[in-house]
Amino acid sequence: MKPAPEANSPDCAAVMVRLPDSVGGQARHWTDAQATGAWDSVLLTCGIPAPGPTELPCETVDGVDWIIDNSEAPRYRFTTYGRSPAVEVYLDYDVVSARAVLSSLSPAVGMLPQTGDECIERPADS
Known about the structure:
Layout: H1 10-16, E1 22-23, E2 26-29, E3 36-39, E4 42-48, E5 58-61, E6 64-72, E7 75-80, E8 86-92, H2 98-109
Antiparallel strand pairs: 1-2, 2-3, 3-4, 4-8, 5-6, 6-7, 7-8
């Protein structure tokens, strides 16, 4: 794993010390890249640039908004929206439940400062 551009942010440090020992039933593995975490088929990177508005789906899990990129399905990329610096979580949906993983990570990731941006609901016919 490689550190993100803002990996040395004190906000990422606050997230890293709060990461759980397991997510989705998978044990944590220690990494040597700053502001990263790994649990079997789940990878986390803190310190990526905050994404702007997107057409990708966005969902709120336990108070944290996540952009969902399924372009590599069954491997999904979830990126926090409305927090800076941002966190990216990459996981294999065939192995672990995204909801379980994001729910496990939300208390730590929720420590990141909010920018005021948040997911918006779109009408069902759009």
